[in-house]
Each structure stands twice: as C-alpha cells, then as structure tokens.
UniProtKB/TrEMBL annotation:
Domain of life: Bacteria
Organism of this sequence: Actinoallomurus vinaceus
Name of the protein this chain belongs to: MerR family transcriptional regulator
Keyword annotations from UniProtKB, A to Z: DNA-binding
InterPro entries: DNA-bd_dom_put_sf (IPR009061), MerR-type_HTH_dom (IPR000551), MerR_fam (IPR047057)
UniProt xrefs under Gene3D superfamilies: 1.10.1660.10
Entry keyword annotation includes DNA-binding: yes
Signal peptide positions on this chain: none
Domain HTH merR-type: 1-68
C-alpha cells in the first residue's frame, strides 16, 4: 500500500510515517516510479508505535522492543544491557501507574454519568483486555 493509504488507515500523518521509516521503525519498498510501498502488516505496527510513543517511550527504545511485539514472537536482545532492562522496567511501571489512573478516571466518569442519568447504568463497551472481567451492576 502507498503512504497515503497507510496514513489514512492509521490516522498518522505522512510526515510521521516518513520519520518512523528514518528511525528504522518501519520499512518500505520503492516502486519503479519512486513511491513508497508498505506491507499491510505495517498498519498494526504503526498503531503499536503510536501507542508506545503516546505512553512516553522514545523511538530508540521502541526500535529495540518492536521484535517482541511481532507474532510469532521472536525475542532476541544481544545488546540488552542492565541499563536497558532498568529503563524498560521503569517505563513498564510508569505505564502501569498511568493505566491505573486512567481506569480510576474512567470509573469516576461512569459513576457520575450513572448518577446524572438517575441510576441507569451506562452501556459499557467490552474491555479490550482479556484479564478484565465484566462490570457488576451494584
């Protein structure tokens, strides 16, 4: 697919896609006319990159952990230094705190909406996490 289609499918600007390519996060083939051609699997890859960037990870760390995000997973870090491991642990812990904060805020908004609607519980979308159980109606 060309860069415009990848941009549309991921909601990512063409400029950012070029930047991801410069950073080695995605790759493209070049058509005879010089246009970039991306494998469709990069739709998911770009979404993963955006999520990791939104979580605060720098591109240099994202580049190193991207192989872990592929399926089937092929984890091989010949250069995993103690510093890199410590950095990843800090980032993981920071993300966990952020998820917990977002969950508390989401639940507070849901409670507010329920109260405003006169006790009628809001319709809740399915949780994306397999570990999340169904919400109970108290």
């Amino acid at each position: 697919m060309r860069i415009g289609e990848l941009s549309e499918r991921t909601g990512t600007s063409r400029r950012l896609l070029r930047y991801y390519e410069e950073q080695g996060l995605i790759v493209s083939e070049r058509c005879a006319n010089g246009y970039r051609d991306y494998d469709p699997r990069f739709v998911d890859r770009v979404m993963q990159i955006r999520g990791l960037l939104d979580a605060g990870l720098p591109t240099r760390i994202i580049k190193q952990i991207l192989p872990c995000l592929d399926k089937p997973r092929s984890i091989h870090f010949p250069d995993a230094t103690p510093e890199m491991i410590a950095t990843l642990e800090r980032e993981r812990d920071r993300m966990t705190e952020r998820v917990e904060c977002l969950t508390r805020n989401r639940d507070a908004i849901a409670e507010y909406l329920e109260e405003v609607r006169g006790g009628v519980p809001p319709v809740v979308a399915a949780e994306p996490s397999a570990t999340a159980g169904p919400r109970s109606a108290d």
